Amino acid sequence: MTEKLGVERVVNAPLPTVHGEFRAVGYLDHDRGDEQVALVHGDIGAENVLTRLHSECLTGDAFGSQHCECGDQLAAALRAVVAEGRGVVVYLRGHEGRGIGLLAKLRAMALQAEGLDTVEANLALGLPVDARDYRVAADILHDLGVNSVRLMSNNPRKREALVRHGIEVAEQVPLLIPPCESNITYLRTKRERLDHHLPHLDAVLPHAAGVSP
């Protein structure tokens, strides 16, 4: 790859977790100034690497919020990588609330409690529905020597972004978390309005593929 990467590898440290042993590879994103990290398990190689691009979600990842499925997805991805014997979870800071930031996300959640869906809430605040940029994730994968991935994601836009930035997506692996009462409306909106592939919702809401009420 001849294009200059926008990230600089700063540190590589062992990180034992409840899911297994990882290496935490820390990066500085020179374009945005964000500090980023990739959790690497095993000898990942270059091709068909099981990979998750996980957008930072403080409420879900750290606090166990059931408003979304993010915390469960992160844990499931880490477990899957360990079960595979090799893989990468790129944890993307600056992606809070699909890129609008923590406080704006909390404001959007307050509007959702009043009846708006996650798309309507962002728009009501004058904010983009999804402001995330995955270039930094592709740069990190390039630095790790990864050419193609098996991408753990239900979001087609992640696949499109990686391909656009020079990473082949050999397969898109579903990462389906059983819904609960607190997040079923949110998940349904992601399916109907953001094109997420969530076929498991059919078992909970047989009409989920239809028009939102």
Give a brief description.
This protein has 213 residues and is α/β, with parallel strands linked by helices. It contains eight helices and seven strands; from the N terminus they run E-E-E-E-H-H-E-H-H-H-H-E-H-E-H.
List the defining traits of the structure above.
single chain; 213 residues; alpha/beta; seven-stranded mixed β-sheet; 8 helices; 33% helix; globular; disordered C terminus
**Number of H/I helices:** 8
Sketch the topology as an H/E string, one letter per element. Answer: EEEEHHEHHHHEHEH
Percent strand equals 15-25%
**Largest sheet composition:** 7 strands, mixed
Number of strands: 7
Q: Which structural category fits the helices and strands?
A: alpha/beta
**What general outline do the C-alpha atoms trace?**
globular
CA gyration radius, whole angstroms: 17 Å
**Distance between the ends:** 48 Å
Strand order of the largest sheet: 1-2-3-5-4-6-7
Written description of the protein model:
Pathway: Cofactor biosynthesis; riboflavin biosynthesis; 5-amino-6-(D-ribitylamino)uracil from GTP: step 1/4. One of its GO terms (molecular function) is GTP cyclohydrolase II activity. Belongs to the GTP cyclohydrolase II family. Its EC number is 3.5.4.25. This is GTP cyclohydrolase-2. The protein is α/β, with parallel strands linked by helices and 213 residues long. The protein is 33% helix and 23% strand. A 7-stranded mixed beta sheet has the order 1-2-3-5-4-6-7, sandwiched between helices. Strand 2 and strand 3 (35-41) form a beta hairpin. Helix 4 (102-113) crosses helix 5.
